[in-house]
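User: For a reading group we're discussing how well predicted structures match intuition. Take DNA-binding response OmpR family regulator. Before you show the prediction, I'll give you the sequence so everyone sees exactly what went in.
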Amino acid sequence: MGGVRVLVVEDEPLLAAAIAEWLRDDSHAVDVAGDGGAALERLTVNEYDVLVLDRDIPVVHGDEVCRRLVESGSATRVLMLTAAAAVTDRVEGLGLGADDYLTKPFAFAELAARVLALGRRSRPADPPVLRRAGVTLDPARHEVFRDGRYVPLSKKEFAVLAELLRADGATVSAEQLLEKAWDEHVDPFTGAVRLTILKLRRKLGEPGLVETVTGVGYRIP
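Assistant: Thanks. Here is the predicted 3D structure of DNA-binding response OmpR family regulator, as structure tokens, for the group to look at:
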């Protein structure tokens, strides 16, 4: 699958930054909130595939954040983090509606694997390999080929191409690409999408593959 949109809610700044950096290295778009109030605001504005939620956070407790999210009917999957290792604590967290539970301290590789697994569950399943118009994208291997030729892509180019292939010929707007491949701090007026599309076209080569639908977005017909 392409990148997962993740909200990390953790009140320890160094840990939050480390989690975000690790997930971004896996081509995910990551936003960070330091308390439950800020988390609820972001969840109202943005659509996330996965919420990495520390249970013991200020302003609004993690339990309440999880409860409100579940009651809203959101498709966002919840990975709850806690320093409490007792079985009763894990049962309570899952009983609130969390989809998974991870005890601190944890290995970043395990957290990343769990986020990816939850991300798959939050959206319709993609085929193991995406194919269209002679392009083959393998999410697991992070490889792209066009007509048998290997195409080296940056993380953002890979994420954008995955979204275009997933659309199955439909047009994808710049706003949708920003939402899926970038975090909330990107300036929508920087031309980031246009520049990434330009680089992607150059790397994919001729004949041109990614079409611009004027005033609407981009597509691979």
